[in-house]
Amino acid sequence: MTILDTILEDKRNEVAESKKRTGRGQIERLARDAAPPRLFKKSLQQVPFAIIAEIKKASPSKGVLVQDFDHKTLAVEFQSGGATALSVLTDKKYFGGDASFIRDVKEVVDLPVLRKDFILDEYQVYESRAIGADAVLLIVRVLSMEELSSFHALAASLGMAVLVETHSKEEIEIANSIGAEIIGINNRDLGTFQLNVRTSVNLFPHIDKRAIAVSESGIFTRSDILVLQNAGFRAVLVGEALVTRENRPAAVRELMSR
């Protein structure tokens, strides 16, 4: 069993417990009664190149990344550095996140927030809106075509943007086929956790030209950004390179500097 298989099994159990605590009808009502979402897609479109700064305490491959972790402090630091949007890990067991982090960070910054988690059930899409997420991540690798299409449509009906994550030409074709407006290429192989930024460059030509292309994972320097910009990307999602820095606002500015 791979690390990914273990994570997904634990996530299904976690969702089952969530359903016991908050029933389907209640989570739907909470989702539909939530304050209107901030415009994640529009924020990416309004800048020449977007930095989605990721708030995470740990990762399965590296362990704890930030010893003095405070999600609200990170959010403020990223916004002050000029980040375009935030990605917030809500998986507790493997990434040190929590669903409450979404609402917390939205109280201290005005950036749109992506919920980063393993969405495997329609329930989680409603839950994402209920906890204040403005956008959700859907990973092609872990969903059937039917699930991906259905969850994508549901998120849109709730006013959320969707970052559809891919790692191969075949997965990009699936994302294109459902009309994904924001398509991410994860440079990390979720099966092996191996990382290669060239993955994005090699796969970019397959992304529908109408979609916003986002490169995810393994982006550490301004030179990485320039390579991706030159390839055609409009945005990057950066986590470890920012959260591990002492001066995080400056780290964001360095990535954005011309």
Brief description of this entry?
The protein is α/β, with parallel strands linked by helices and 258 residues long.
Polypeptide structure, described:
- With 258 residues, the protein is an alpha/beta fold.
- The chain has one domain (3-256): Alpha-Beta Barrel (TIM Barrel).
- 46% of the residues lie in helices and 17% in strands.
- It has 13 helices and 10 strands.
- The strands form 2 sheets. The chain has an 8-stranded parallel beta barrel, surrounded by 7 helices.
- β8, α10 (198-203) and β9 (212-216) form a beta-alpha-beta unit.
- α4 (71-81) runs parallel beside α13 (248-256).
- The N and C termini lie far apart (44 Å).
Shape: globular
Strand order of the largest sheet: 1-4-5-6-7-8-9-10
Rounded to an integer, what's the Rg over CA atoms? Answer: 17 Å
Element order, helices and strands? Answer: HHHEEEHEHHEHEHEHEHEHEHH
Mean pLDDT: 96
- Number of DSSP helices? 13
Helix content bin: 40-55%
| The CATH architecture | Alpha-Beta Barrel
Total count of domains: 1
SS class: alpha/beta
Write the layout of secondary structure elements.
Layout (H helix, E strand, L loop, with lengths): L2 H19 L2 H10 L6 H6 L4 E6 L2 E2 L3 E2 L6 H11 L3 E5 L2 H4 L4 H9 L4 E4 L5 H9 L4 E5 L5 H13 L3 E6 L2 H9 L4 E5 L11 H6 L8 E5 L5 H10 L3 E4 L1 H4 L4 H9 L2
Task: List the main descriptive attributes of the protein structure presented here.
eight-stranded parallel beta barrel; alpha/beta; 258 residues; 46% helix; TIM Barrel; two-stranded antiparallel ribbon
